[in-house]
Design a protein that fits this description.
single chain; alpha/beta; 2 domains
Length: 242
């Protein structure tokens, strides 16, 4: 990343890559050194955080989407001094819930038994606003993204989610500016879940709800997400210093 610009690190969610962030990369590349993390074959949130940190500069603004927001909170636990500001989008901070293992394992079994296309057909549509689900042009990049993963990589990411660490200590220790954002129609991580996160963080946080968007808000509502991130990112120092 360019040391003459402030740094922006983007952490993707489950079965996601730079496709979800393409509007943010396009919008911020002129004013920031933008990096989208690649977790590789990591099978724990901690290892994902380590890999993101290994590739990141000394100071940066950090945005996590979905599972990536959990990774972001692990980055905050490991190296809070590196993060100048934090954004958590379409996510949760709760521990593993009753029935979650079984629900996620059914998807892993589907991917292993019938392939990633079958998994994509079952998993992806509920992740977006209903108005997008039959829009082939809109959905095609997301489908291609999901099917680029393998059943093994999917199983590893599910293992990471099912063994996720407690986010409580990281949340309680946050002392940098925080943006909490969520799609209004996010069925997986609903608005009320983000209201709880916002209330827990307290005075340094701002919450934004992105209208006409589901769980993939950075992709579904790029203008709204970019506007919120631009306000949050303003004041970021060159080189990542305060």
């Amino acid at each position: 990343m360019n040391a003459a610009k402030p740094a922006l690190v983007l952490l993707p969610g489950l079965l996601c890559d730079e496709t979800v962030w393409r509007a943010q990369v396009r919008s911020f590349s002129g004013k920031a050194g933008v990096f989208v993390a690649d977790y590789g074959d990591a099978d724990s949130i901690s290892l994902m955080a380590e890999r993101a940190l290994d590739a990141a500069p000394d100071r940066f603004a950090l945005v996590g989407h979905s599972m990536g927001a959990r990774v972001a909170l692990e980055v905050m636990r490991m190296a809070p001094e590196k993060v100048e500001r934090l954004a958590l989008l379409d996510t949760g901070v709760h521990r593993v819930q009753s029935g979650e293992h079984e629900k996620r394992q059914r998807l892993v079994d589907l991917a292993q038994d019938e392939g990633m296309e079958a998994l994509c057909n079952a998993w992806l549509p509920p992740m977006v606003h209903p108005k997008f689900r039959e829009d082939d042009v809109f959905m095609r990049p997301l489908r291609e993204m999901v099917t680029r993963f393998t059943p093994d990589l999917f199983a590893r990411q599910i293992r990471a989610l099912l063994t996720r660490p407690d986010t409580g200590p990281a949340l309680d220790a946050i002392d940098c500016p925080v943006l909490v954002g969520v799609g209004r129609q996010d069925e997986w991580s609903p608005v009320r879940q983000h209201e709880d996160i916002f209330a827990r963080i307290g005075g340094n946080a701002k919450m934004v709800v992105f209208e006409e968007a589901g769980h993939m808000a950075p992709y579904e509502a790029p203008q709204s997400v970019n506007a919120a991130l631009s306000e949050w990112f303003s004041g970021m120092s060159v080189g990542g210093g305060r």
